[in-house]
Amino acid sequence: MSTDAPPTKSFRQVSLPFLSAVAISIGLAGSTFIAAHSWKEVRKRPEKNNIRITGSARKRIVSDLIQWNASVEAQGADRTAAYVALKGGTEKVVAFLKAQGVTVGEIQTESAAITEEFDIIKEDKVLPGTNVPLRSERKESKGFRARQMVAVSSTNVPQIEKVSREITTLLEQGVDVTSHEPNYYYTRLGELKLEMLAEAAKDARARAENILSSAGNTGVGKLVYADMGIININAANSTETSNEGNNDTSSRDKDIITIIHAEFEVK
After folding, report:
1. Cα torsion 130, 132, 138, 142: sign
2. Which end of the chain is more exposed for a tag (fewer CB within 10 A), N or C?
């Protein structure tokens, strides 16, 4: 009985150098496509050709409203005596204001507050039959103090400034009065903000034109976006800034600084 060997399949021998050549060819083709596509993207003009810029405007303003307070105090052995003394002092303050030309409608007297005051009496004793010290404290009433605020709100700023400086002459008449620092306001701020925003927008366009002209571009197109930034109201000549915005009330003369963020088309 004869045994035949199983038939064998013939395989085509592929050399490694040939496979390497094929891989390199595919890689080069892919790299060429990627490079060409990237160059095309670089040369393609951006869909948005805009410039973003920040503009600002500054203007000096003079406050047209002043609010000022004077506090009046008085003492008495009891609540009634303290209140009567306070009432007399407050009436003298109001009379002084009227004599200086302040109108009744500009004067407001607030409610009186009366508190009892105490002295702290400290006593050192020794327990009988011992050398142990014993310290005690007790409160002893020394009377009552009454306080009242007189407030003035006026558009006559120079007049109230003068009054705030001279009110303490009442001390010579036995009136316990204290003059507080005035607060200054500008009542047409809403109208001014619109004007300042327009000026800030003009400044933003001027800045954009300067930048583009230096870079060789043709010019600035239409405004496509704008938002109001922080508005700072500072004392005159102050450079203070705040992320929340300043609103100075301590000075009569102020600087209002407005900022706007704008985006323009580039021609």
Report:
1. positive
2. N
Specify whether 165 is located in the same domain as 251: no
| Cα-Cα-Cα-Cα dihedral sign, residues 163, 169, 170, 171 | positive
Residues 76 and 148 in one domain: yes
In a domain, 255, yes or no: yes
Q: Note the pLDDT tens digit of each residue in 76-95.
A: 999 999 999 999 999 999 99
List the domain range (segments joined by +) for residue 220. 50-62+187-266
Q: Give the residue with greater pLDDT, 3 vs 111.
A: 111
Q: Indicate the range of 112-116, 131-135, 177-181 predicted with least confidence.
A: 131-135
Q: Residue 217 and residue 51: Cα distance in Å, rounded?
A: 11
Bridge partners (DSSP) of residue 152 are 68, 107
Other CB atoms within 10 A of residue 54 CB: 13
Please check whether residues 216 and 201 belong to one and the same domain: yes
Instruction: Tell me the two tokens of residue 74.
Output: 């008085």
Helical (H) or strand (E) element with 39: helix 16-43
Tell whether the model's pLDDT for residue 125 goes beyond 60: yes
**Position 1 in a domain:** no
* CATH code: domain of residue 169: 3.30.70.2970
**Looking at the domain assignment, is residue 69 inside a domain?**
yes
Q: Which amino acid is at 37?
A: H
Residues 227 and 259 in one domain: yes
Task: Yes or no: say if 55 and 220 are a contact pair by the CB < 8 Å rule.
Answer: no
Under 8 Å between Cβ of 61 and 235: no
